[in-house]
Amino acid sequence: MWAYCQEQGIAFSRSRAFHENDNPHVEQTNWMLVRRLVGYQRLEAPEQLAWLEAFYTELLRPYANCFQPVMKLIGKEAVGQRTRRLYGRPTTPLARVLQSGRADPAKIPSLVHLYANDSPLPLKRLIDRRLAAMPATLAVTESA
Description:
Largest sheet: 2 strands, antiparallel
Order of helices and strands: HHHEEHHHH
Shape: globular
Number of strands: 2
Mean pLDDT: 82
Structural class: mainly alpha
Helix content: 55-70%
Strand order of the largest sheet: 1-2
Number of helices: 7
Distance between the termini: 16 Å
Low-confidence stretches: 140-144
C-alpha cells in the first residue's frame, strides 16, 4: 500500500485530519471485524487481497451491519471521582441508519433487500466455512 501511495502521489495517513485520537477507534473496529477472524497476517499478494475483499464484502460486512447489535455511547456523567458511561439500547448499524432518517433514499431499498434476503445463522456458518478453507498463502506470511 505504501509503495502504491508513493507512486500515485497520495498522502499516506493512518488517521483523519484534525482527529489526533482517531487511530485507536479505527484499530478497535479492525480488531472487531477483521483481525479477530482473519488474524494478524500481512496480506500483500494480489490473491490474498482478492480473497479478503470477497470475504469482507460478501459475508462479513452484511453479517456485521445487519445482524450484530452495537451499543452506542449516548453520554457520560460524573459520579464522584468516576465517570459513568451511558449507552443506548443495542441496535444493528443498519437499524440505526434507517432510524436516523439521514440515509440516502436511493440506497434504502438495497439495504432492506440485503437484510431481507440474508439470515444470520446460514451467513455465520458460511463465514466459518470460508475461514476454515482460507487459502494457505494467507497463513504463510506473518507481519514483523
